[in-house]
User: Fold this.
Amino acid sequence: VVEKGQPERSVITTCAYCGVGCSFRAEMKGDELVRMVPDKNGQANHGHSCVKGRFAWGYATHPDRITKPMIRKRISDPWQEVSWDEAVTYAASEFRRIQLAYGRDSIGGITSSRCTNEEVYLVQKLVRAGFGNNNVDTCARVCHSPTGYGLKQTLGESAGTQNFDSVMQADVILVIGANPTDAHPVFGSQLKRRLRQGARLIVIDPRRIDLVDSPHARAELHLALRPGTNVAMLNALAHVIVSEGLLDQAFIDARCEAADFARWSAFVGQAENSPEVLGPVCGVEPQLIRQAARLYATGGNAAIYYGLGVTEHSQGSTTVMGIANLAMATGNIGREGVGVNPLRGQNNVQGSCDMGSFPHELPGYRHVSNAEVRAQFEQAWGVTLQPDPGLRIPNMFEAALGGSFKALYCQGEDIAQSDPNTQHVTAALSAMECVVVQDIFLNETAKFAHVFLPGSSFLEKDGTFTNAERRISRVRKVMEPLAGKSDWQATIALAEALGYRMDYQHPAQIMDEIASLTPTFARVSYAELDRHGSLQWPCNDAAPDGTPTMHIDQFVRGKGRFMLTGYVPTEEKVNSRFPLLLTTGRILSQYNVGAQTRRTDNVAWHEEDRLEIHPSDAESRGIGDGDWVGVGSRSGQTVLRARVSERVAPGVVYTTFHFPESGANVITTDNSDWATNCPEYKVTAVEVTRVYQP
Ligand code: SF4
Assistant:
């Protein structure tokens, strides 16, 4: 007999919000989910959770869920519900018509970091084997693509070096461009525990984030740099380490390329990279930079954690390489308590990159031009693969506006809302002849779609997510898909309608295929995941139990490679018309564009995006706390409510981006990272004017 309110059974699964990847016990009564309880055996969270994972799952059964496939010939037509067969047959016939008319490369696909590894793998396989091109990209393009590039260049692998528990061995923690309290709350709490035990904290961030003044866990140094000057700051830190002889020369000699180190140390050692020259560029006292460099280099085990405040810049990849340079120069890599640790925003950013959803890389970060690698996939998939990289997301938009890109399959990603310069994105979508959107809600991108395939929530899926520490964890089905098909089954149906057969009965078989073709996943299977609880890749014959710490005896690329990191100021300049710099971030109680958290009503959620403005900037504009203000940039304008706050420095304003109607992406620019096209969301020159008082 089951007591009222008591669960009858539970299923262990993984949170679908941030890159911490907390494990939960989904407790069920009949077919109903009654609560999510953080799993004490969870290897990323050890029984902890934040408000989102614990409570924000009601969106999965929200009335806004679309559960029937729909089509319409023109976007001005009303949607018509159809069968799955009709929807995928129509989509496939449009894709084929368009390829016949405009060429093989006129169509492409976008994968989502919210979907499972298996789903992402299938979409890139569909594009490569079914569409016959490499026009596949992932939403990691707009967040952590510079991490993939920068860490591969320097260390040889596109991933963070440590597990989260490693922070408990750190003596010095450097947080740059990240706000773990709000964006990675369970890891943020772990980090604070280590600070309470005596570790010392350096924060490099334009904003006075919670960690700067958190009780009993506050930062020893806060370098409140001007947005857009990360590279200048890292070069100044490196200058101090080189010029004051704080290098770990034995580590460098044993582990790094000598010629690259010589070039780098000569470069950062120049007077033009000194704190006295670059401090004013960053808006930070040179003496503070010197103190930070000495603490990082000499304070014992030093670990760096960074987030989108590093990557979403025109020099995002350069900044990532600068971070890796610092870690190598001081020997802070290759053991517990140190390392270079990207805090991934979405639950499966790491996985979506691992699974080959970049236009230049097959699963496992292997370049499409590598004939040997291509041959393995060609044999397994029974097709001929293209050797040239395909289009990145921004290139797809450009090509659509130029008339050569005509159709898109977009799974689980709302590009009309989350990509920069909304007007440009919507114009590109409008120019396409067939847009297929697969999502759980009719999102903004669906306004431009001709086919809508209903998606499944994480509660309706079997699969895996890979978190920020390369930890592969099982996602287990809690309820049947409301639309009758899981996302992986929908992709298979679309592939088969295109004439390309995919033969899987369960996602476990997809993982088996991934493991057979991806050396870093070679020993990963659902049976091994069940046995271990989770596994951190690389997991293969050399590391059958996975790899918590990377680069222990040697770097993945062999010797570590110092990269030159010249500072190039962003093109986004302040002037008399746009005198303030806007930067953006997250708040604990919302998630990204709010599609899920705003459809969950069992807790009190943060209810609007506000614009933080320093009291001096507010006063000079006659703005009071709570006033509505206009925020204008070279790209567009929007209206937000002001919060007068000393969390931001004079000349800097800040907002969150959880309410798309607030229009943060209407005002961001087209600037992007030179290496990866990751948008420069974090630096926009704006002016703020009072609109009216409430
Ligand atoms: Fe989910 Fe991240 Fe919160 Fe953990 S910290 S419960 S993964 S949102």
Observations:
- The first helix runs from residue 51 to 55.
